[in-house]
């Protein structure tokens, strides 16, 4: 039996009975989490439908209806969850249309002085917390959950979200294939490409309407900062390998000068070079994961390069290994797509990018934008 469940204003699923039970055991689905399946007249708290509870009576004639909020006849989208509803099923609050399920959380955010997701304000204005408050609060990183949520997210509107991600990936590859200048063009352009795609996903996560062209919104006023947000961390991470490369080069030059294979001293130098390269790889990985949200902070909140790098590192430090696992799992998923005749990567790349965007939104949505 297929279930849908609401999480942070988003409708996720479908999942079967076993997966729903696993999500409940993991604490992702709680007693007050709204769920829906065929036969229900509306969303129900999980506590009322779990196996030991008495399920609500199926609504007459409701067996073949889609989950509330996804009907084809809907005219408006909820600014909280982004799902489509008939206009009479929503109410107007602060210039936005809100469904009944999102109303309590939306009103709570208004009472706290924040700008709710999906309001009519521009992207990046959500939240009123300072960087110290964001860096000081706890969070969780469920890598497999983020991948699962991203799958439901991009396939909810594949003609926009999935296609947008695939186009960005294709254009990025094309830029890197430019003769002679490909590596330089790729290094400079990857930041704006990724920044635009992430902002594209973030806007949709917050209930805003996006169009296919918005996936390239990194080519705008923040182009320079987005380019630096990829170039600088990449170069700094790359510098970590220089000691090992330099030491190895010494051994190679010595062997070339003698015109013979490695001897005792050369082997010792090569061992030291290998150790230095391994150490450099560990440090580079630490830096890369620490700065993984830099581009998103620049694109979404308008942060400058150094401020974005610093805040990303401070927040990631709280749960470094969980964020590392998200990056590692994402790499496995992208690699799996590449091995699927190289075509699957046009699905797995948007999927992993969306997963990281979802994690970022959970961690930084309440962050106030940078002051102009």
Can you walk me through this structure?
This protein has helices at residues 17-26, 103-111, 131-136, 143-154, 158-176, 182-205, 223-239, 242-258, 264-290, 294-301, 305-318, 320-339, 345-364; strands at 3-7, 10-15, 34-37, 44-45, 76-77, 84-85, 90-93, 96-99. It is of the alpha+beta class and 372 residues long. It folds into three domains: 3-128, no CATH class; 132-240 and 285-364, no CATH class; 244-283, no CATH class. The protein has a four-stranded antiparallel β-sheet with strand order 2-1-3-4. A hairpin with a 2-residue loop joins strand 7 (90-93) and strand 8 (96-99). The longest helix has 27 residues, at 264-290. Mean pLDDT is 82; it is low at 56-66, 70-74 and 112-125.
Task: Describe the structure using short key phrases.
13 helices; alpha+beta; four-stranded antiparallel sheet; single chain; two-stranded antiparallel ribbon; about 375 residues
Quick structural summary:
With 372 residues, this protein is of the alpha+beta class. It is built from 13 helices and 8 strands.
Helix content: 40-55%
**Tally of separate helices:** 13
Structural class: alpha+beta
Head-to-tail CA distance between termini: 51 Å
Q: What string, H for helix and E for strand, traces the elements in order?
A: EEHEEEEEEHHHHHHHHHHHH
Q: Note poorly predicted spans.
A: 56-66, 70-74, 112-125
Overall 3D form:
elongated
Provide the number of structural domains.
Answer: 3
Largest β sheet strand count, sense and barrel closure: 4 strands, antiparallel
Radius of gyration: 24 Å
Average pLDDT confidence is 82
Instruction: Count every beta strand, where a strand is a DSSP E run of 2 or more residues.
Output: 8
Strand content: 5-15%
